[in-house]
Amino acid sequence: MSREIEDYRGKKYSGHDTRIFKEWEMMDQRYRGDKQCEYIIRKRNGAGLPIVFDIIFNIKSIIGVEEADDQGLQKPIFGNEHIMRIKLPNNYPDAHSQPEFDFTTNVWHPNIQYSGDFKGHVCLNTTDHGVYTSLVTYIDRVIDYLTYEDYLAKNEYPYPQDLEVAEWVLTQAEPQGWIPFTQN
User: What one-character-per-residue DSSP string does the chain give?
Assistant: First the structure.
């Protein structure tokens, strides 16, 4: 447990702040000292509790694709550091107030918007999971996304976030055996 968590542990929280503290405590226990995933607090609420985190993933993942070769194939381009911002809304964890998960770095995955107005948005189907799903559970799911251990590419419920990437996965990455890939 980090010293900072210990400093906040003795305080009395009510309502939403109790949940925010527990989420922070779970993140600190799970990722403190983890070389694959760490966090930085970017913003705090009035009680001093974190409401915006940057999650830094040190994981090999696809960040884009090459231009098509003579056969029309677009080979994956890999990167090793990916940053996702988590924003907790004011009344988190109410059912109609889900956290936002958005990458600030490029990630090529059918469940993460690669371009356009919602570039970086991560589709985690938070409304399907309910208010009791922890941020740690979502972060671990994103780790599975980054390694392509988990992805939804078929254009059916719950639907991919980025249809262009989903098509690439189905027509090129799967047939070529590019995913899932090893973490070497």
Answer: --HHHHHHHTS---THHHHHHHHHHHHHHHHTT-SSEEEEEEEE-TTS-EEEEEEEE---EEEEEPPP-TTS---EEEES-EEEEEE--TTTTSTT-PPEEEESS---BTTB--SSTTTTBB---HHHH-TT--HHHHHHHHHHHHTTSS---SSSTT--S-HHHHHHIIIIIHHHT-SS----
